[in-house]
Amino acid sequence: MARVKISEYRAKKLILGNAYRGLELQGGVKLPGRLTGQWVAKVDQGVKKRFKQGLVAIGSRSKLVAALNSWKKKGFSRFIVEPFVPHKENEEQYLSLERVREGIRVLHAHNGGIDVEAHPEAVKVFVVREPADVKKLVHATKIPESFLSHLLETFNANFFAFLEVNPLVVRKNEAYLLDAAALVDSAGAFFTRVWSESDIVETKSRHPAEERVKALDATTPASLKLSVLNKNGGIFFLLSAGGGSIVIADHAELTGAGKLIGNYGEYSGGPTREETYLYAKEVIGLLLHSKAKRKALVIAGPVANFTDVKKTFLGIIDALSEKVVELRKNKVKVFVRRGGPNEAAGLGLMREFLKREKLLGAVYGSDAVITRAIDEAIPTVC
Amino acid sequence: MLKILEKTRNGEDGIIAIGNHPAIIQSILDFDFLSGKKKPSLQCIITGNRKAHKCFFGAREVIVPCFKDIEHVPADIKKRVRWMLNLQSGRRAFDSSVRFFEAFPQALGGHIFAENVPEAHATELIRRYGRTKLIAGPSGVGILISGALKLGAIGGIDLTQIEAGKFKIPGSIAVVSTSGGMTNELIRAVAASGHHVSFSICIGGDRFPVTSLSDVLALAQADAQTKALVYFGELGGSDEYEIAELLKKKRFTKPVVAYVAGIIDEAFDEHMQFGHAKALVHRPDESARAKREALVKAGAISPATFTEFLQAIAELPRSAVRDTVADIETIMNRTPSILSTREIVDQSEIPAFVKRGKLARRGENSFASSALKALLGCAVSPTTAAFAENTFELLIDHGGAVSGAVNTMVTARAGKDMVSSLAAGLLTVGPRFGGAVNESARAWLSGVASKKSAADFVEEWARSGALISGIGHRKYRVGVPDPRVAALAQFAILLKKHPHYDFAREVEKITSGKNGKLILNVDGAIAALFLDILKECERYSHEELAELVEAEFFNALFIIPRSVGFISHFIEQKLHDEGLFRLPEELLFVRKGKK
């Protein structure tokens, strides 16, 4: 994914450098024995509205320990601990930066804690295109120039995509980042050393199949994506192409079968036979694990530009071959629509295989409409 | 920027590919050929480890030059370059694109194929080239201008796809999408409904395409050939609002047929990230439904289902374009050569060595003289030297298909040095390749000494089941004599007696009587004549000739000149380096091993 969340700790450390006194707790790192004064502890896993969910604790060390233990019991594993900054509510401001086509878009509001979407009128929008724009921004927001230009520079140089500081407290020349949320551009990982894979936070726990596909995706120039939507769904998708796959899933929703979809995902960009095999294996595994009574596998996609239909279908056949007995036992039928290079050969192989193994629902090529396979699959699982 | 389509249609189509993707590159040449171009648009490839890449232009093979970097592209190629096809990874795409546009300020644009180009790199490319160049990507499948330019995988990579998409003929419908697969699906939908594409741009699924959707619409508005626009978009981002805005302000006045995918997102509790980086709803107005409604409100035709969308495409006005059908079957039957080489010696031109009873080409023959003196240990007569010289000349090379030359070339392609490659070729010389001269000399010498008739001699060989070295040719036969043998045979005229040559010819009469191909070949003729020349001109006794046969002297007549040939093949491979050689799998017959 292009934009990913990094931990609040890493974001603040990058912005504030050595001046930042916060601590990161994860993987066995414990709270220091002595903490003087008031501190704040928060779950640092990209969770929104932490305060409302009770995932923020303020106080002495013992109070924090109790909170941390209760969060761990809830399954959280990454925390941030930092000195508490006492402030008045009217000091709170809102600031966000986002990389846009023309430069960096800055949103600022003099009252913090707001829901930006709900109160667009309270928010001023600026676009920083060139260094001269920073002066105007300082003038309009009254945020100290040293902090603002350093922030923009850090943002730009370290492949940040989005940063939200809410609330922000400004006192004379000092800026305090009370809460911060940051997205970085994952494509920048190769070019920067200041953040890495280990700083990326996951909001929800992934399905093991998703984990495996993600790991596979990281090691190929092709694109392999998988999301588990409904473990007990009836329609499982082996879709190809980023855009075409949505058209096919749309059709299921438009014909009232959206809730039956077990997974979404797509392979594209010319994966090899072996990569397609590994990917297909995961989808077939999900299908077999589903407790739905009637199940179908839909292998569909648009007319590929360069992904070889024969090569990728051989990979899918490899994966199907391993589970033919189980698939038959589950009464699974396979519905196919695909076009592209080596279309005739690929479809021929698939049709022959499905027929022989008694799994054939239907096989269509580029002369059929893209939604044909899903269209025929839906009535068999409803 | 608005003139880019026009310029390209007028022949400014020269492409440099940065990085190699053989299937995509071949599809560009196929498109050029089917579009009726006389020359491929692809000028060269920037890639390491090779100096040439073979492609087909129609059914004929052509060599595309490869260079290590942009700076090495020669001036005559440089002046034809207008387009960049950047096939490098996201890690290198930015640097190489900047270097391209710095080296080719006159370039019209390009396509960056890579996914995973950092956003910051994309915005920097926009800042530098956004206003002046047409750049598809980062990501996506490129740019298509019907009949004029195929820059990338767009429209498919095999001939059947190019033919089915009908985009070798200029039409009137512009196809635009962020999605590569759907761009092609729409091109095919346009073709299937009897329409033709004027141009198509896949702007890519990244957040910041260099050429934006608005830019493409401006291009479509300015293009007189384009009468309507077909668009496929997805949830996430705000592209569709750009279209709506242009429609409302009447800055785009042609019909727009659009489909916005992503209704499925409504089936889930949380917004989901779909395949493309941008395909995630952050704000309510980024939903497929909201964007479709905005388009409809602005006057676009944007149906709720894909089937209705296809119907709307079919109803667009048609332009009067006649389809042509290409015989792609013939082109598809082409088989690629596996090694490319140069004609080192003109096999069709055999000089006359002897004319009117005299040596035709009186020269010093100093190398041949010195070589023979070294080999035999004594100075030789002009006739002997001339025969050696002419033999050398004939045997330098016999084309790239023979096994010794193949081994030399394969070794050179593995990156080895001259001596190793030459040795690989020479080590092939033996009983089945190149070693026949010595074996033939042995046969003629023993045959003459035995005083047997040629018929008995042949009978004896036949009975033992062996083939006579020096007899038989793959191509030439009785009635179609080998011109090299004919040229060498003239040396017999210079001699008073030529018993070995006569014997060889007697043997030939018997063998060729059975099979017209069993004629005296060049190895046999060299062996026979050299035996006679050494005997008459250098006064060699039968015993001395027998010793030379044992010492394999006659093979030297092959090895010396052929070394030159092998070295020539070596140099040719280095000059035209195509990288490591690997036998195509389909040329191997593999049996299952025993378990």
What can you see in these coordinates?
The complex is a heterodimer of chains A (382) and B (595). Chain A is α+β, with helices and mostly antiparallel strands and 382 residues long. Chain A folds into three domains: 20-83, 2-Layer Sandwich (Dna Ligase, domain 1), CATH 3.30.1490; 89-177, D-amino Acid Aminotransferase, Chain A, domain 1 (2-Layer Sandwich); 208-381, Rossmann fold, CATH 3.40.50. Chain A has eleven helices and 17 strands. Chain A has helices at residues 8-16, 61-73, 132-141, 145-157, 208-217, 242-254, 273-289, 309-321, 324-329, 343-356, 372-381, and strands at residues 3-6, 23-26, 39-43, 56-59, 78-83, 92-100, 103-109, 124-128, 160-171, 174-177, 180-185, 223-228, 235-239, 263-268, 296-303, 333-339, 360-364. In chain A, α7 packs across α8 and α8 runs parallel beside α10 (343-356). The two termini of chain A are 33 Å apart. With 595 residues, chain B is α/β, with parallel strands linked by helices. In chain B, the strands form three sheets. In chain B, strands 3-4-2-1-5-6-7 form a seven-stranded mixed sheet, with helices on both faces. In chain B, α17 (436-450) packs across α22 (522-537). The longest helix of chain B is centred in the C-terminal third of the chain and has 23 residues, at 553-575. Chain B is elongated. At the A-B interface, β12, α6, β14 and β15 of A face α2, α5, α6, α7 and α11 of B. Chain A: GO terms for molecular function: ATP binding; transferase activity. Chain A: It is found in: Cytoplasm. Chain A: InterPro entries: Citrate-bd (IPR032263), Citrate_synth_N (IPR056749), Succinyl-CoA_synth-like (IPR016102).
